TrEMBL record:
Principal location: membrane
Protein name as catalogued: Olfactory receptor
Sequence intervals crossing the membrane: 28-51, 63-88, 100-122, 142-165, 199-223, 244-267, 273-294
UniProt key word Cell membrane: yes
Length: 314
């Protein structure tokens, strides 16, 4: 493990932390990370390619899935530079401006992903509640406007974060506790009051993640109410089956997020390795597993992946 002599006056950069107790330049960790990022690109790239070439997949559900895939890749790529610099090149130092830029993209794409999951819950509600008018309600222009609204909301909410960090004086250690830059992580190193940052972070979490989770929950209450009104048991199961992939994606996003929050708030006695592991799972797991879940649970996507694979073999 490299030893850094941190000067209280050095605030032009931060030092990112790998996994406590493990040398930063670890070939096994580097291989595992490379494998995860490769899976993310291949999985989401395959989903995007299949939806593009298969005309039968040009439906609202798959357009939203495309947006989710792009968001997952973007979120994953936001952490890539710092992760590789630590575990591949043993260079954990990151410039202050680069750190707050990474911070903006990580929080921004996290907010976008939450919004996309909400829009996908709305998509499932419309498909089950009004299947005859489903494609006429969620036409491409409407989906485009929803996507723009999600992106605009994320940018507007996260835009103040870099400025709130930049105004703070840093005169303590500049060693962060993760392999990438987060607002709450950098904020704790400040030697001035961080009340405004804490309050804004709390409002953001409630407005974005809390509100989105409630909307998704309410959407599924309405979906369940609609499904229970269907006379045929087979039709009820078929309707619920179309929601399984989205439910898995919601759990993959919110369960690690809630776990990270709980560990951060109440797990101060836990090993630093636990904090690091949970934080990495929160950002790395959903982009890897989402395309796998949709490929396994969605028959149409699975069938077209096999068709495309056979064409390439020929």
């Amino acid at each position: 493990m490299m030893n850094f002599n941190i000067s209280p006056a050095n605030h032009h950069s931060f030092i990112l932390t790998g996994i406590p107790g493990m040398p930063n330049k670890n070939p096994w960790m580097a291989f595992a990370l490379g494998f995860l990022y490769t899976l993310t690109l291949l999985g989401n790239g395959t989903i995007l390619a299949v939806i593009k070439v298969a005309q039968s997949l040009h439906e609202p559900m798959y357009y939203f899935l495309s947006i989710l895939a792009v968001t997952d890749v973007s979120l994953s790529m936001s952490t890539l530079p710092s992760m590789l610099s630590i575990f591949w090149f043993n260079a954990p130092e990151i410039a202050f401006d680069a750190c707050i830029t990474q911070m903006f993209f990580i929080h921004g794409f996290g907010a976008v992903e939450s919004g996309v999951l909400v829009s996908m819950a709305f998509d499932r509600f419309v498909a089950i509640r009004d299947p005859l008018h489903y494609t006429s309600i969620l036409i491409p222009s409407v989906i485009g406007k929803i996507g723009i609204a999600i992106l605009t909301r994320a940018v507007c909410v996260v835009f103040p974060v870099p400025f709130l960090i930049k105004r703070l004086p840093f005169c303590h250690s500049n060693v962060l506790s993760h392999s990438y830059c987060l607002h709450q992580d950098a904020m704790r190193l400040a030697c001035a009051s961080t009340r405004v940052n804490s309050l804004y972070g709390l409002i953001t979490v409630i407005f974005i993640l809390g509100l989105d989770a409630l909307i998704i929950l309410f959407s599924y209450v309405l979906i369940l109410k609609t499904v229970l009104g269907i006379a045929s048991k087979a039709e009820r199961l078929k309707a619920l089956n179309t929601c399984l992939s989205h439910i898995c994606a919601v759990f993959l996003f919110y369960v690690p997020l809630i776990s990270v929050t709980m560990v951060h708030r109440f797990g101060k006695h836990l090993s630093p390795a636990v904090h690091t592991l949970m934080a990495n799972i929160y950002l790395l797991l959903p982009p890897v597993l989402n395309p796998i879940v949709y490929s396994l649970k969605t028959k149409q996507i699975r069938r077209h992946i096999l068709i495309v694979s056979k064409r390439r073999k020929k």
